[in-house]
């Protein structure tokens, strides 16, 4: 059985919030890959994107995700991890992939200003375009899908724990 859980989804879907709560309830470690990237580079995500462009950032993000070594951890990569096939293959090998699903309308409410959040979005692309591009990728990779629609992180954690327990029997 895979000893890790990786949360995938759009920025603002709750990967870090739910990840911390889930890790506490399972007695796991929590790995926020955005923080790992910032620690390894000494730069904020938006600084990396400004210096290396989106493609440079995505390449760096894939390298770091592909090299993650974790056991009994909840992993929260950035929302753009799904562009890296090798990173996703590695994460699938070491963990169960859980897609935190949000409607576009809920995402729009949660996100606010994208430029301040370090979101990997190409110039000229809208939030709607980003959402429409990524959702099929999240759905393709997910082992489990949890709807975040209209509820708090605690309810999602409880549902996910129940599903994981049911699937381990």
Average pLDDT value? 91
Find the structural class using helix and strand composition: alpha/beta
For CATH, the homologous superfamily is named as P-loop containing nucleotide triphosphate hydrolases
The biggest sheet, with number of strands, parallel, antiparallel or mixed sense and barrel status, is:
5 strands, parallel
The CATH architecture: 3-Layer(aba) Sandwich
Question: Nutshell version of this structure?
Answer:
With 169 residues, this protein is an alpha/beta fold. The chain has helices at residues 15-26, 33-41, 45-66, 85-94, 104-111, 127-141, 153-168; strands spanning 4-8, 29-32, 73-76, 95-101, 144-147. It has one domain: P-loop containing nucleotide triphosphate hydrolases (Rossmann fold), CATH 3.40.50.300.
Task: Give a structural overview.
It is built from seven helices and five strands; from the N terminus they run E-H-E-H-H-E-H-E-H-H-E-H. The protein has 169 residues and is α/β, with parallel strands linked by helices. It has a single domain, classed as P-loop containing nucleotide triphosphate hydrolases (Rossmann fold, 3-Layer(aba) Sandwich).
Q: How is this fold's topology laid out?
A:
Elements: E1 4-8, H1 15-26, E2 29-32, H2 33-41, H3 45-66, E3 73-76, H4 85-94, E4 95-101, H5 104-111, H6 127-141, E5 144-147, H7 153-168
Parallel strand pairs: 1-3, 1-4, 2-3, 4-5
Helix pairs in contact: 1-7, 2-3, 3-4
């Amino acid at each position: 059985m895979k000893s890790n859980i990786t949360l995938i989804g759009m920025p603002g879907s709750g990967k870090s919030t739910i990840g911390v709560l889930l890790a506490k309830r399972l007695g796991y470690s929590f790995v926020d890959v955005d923080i790992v990237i910032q620690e390894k580079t000494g730069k904020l995500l938006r600084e990396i994107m400004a210096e290396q462009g989106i493609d440079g950032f995505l390449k760096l993000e894939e390298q770091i995700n592909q090299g993650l070594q974790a056991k009994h951890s909840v992993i929260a990569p950035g929302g753009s991890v799904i562009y890296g096939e090798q990173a996703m293959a590695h994460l699938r090998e070491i963990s169960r992939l859980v897609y935190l699903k949000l409607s576009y309308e809920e995402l729009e409410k949660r996100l606010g200003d994208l430029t301040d959040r370090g979101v990997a979005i190409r110039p000229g692309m809208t939030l709607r375009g980003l959402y429409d591009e990524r959702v099929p990728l999240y759905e393709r990779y997910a082992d489990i899908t949890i709807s975040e629609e209209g509820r708090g992180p605690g309810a999602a954690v409880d549902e996910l724990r129940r599903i994981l327990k049911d699937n381990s029997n």
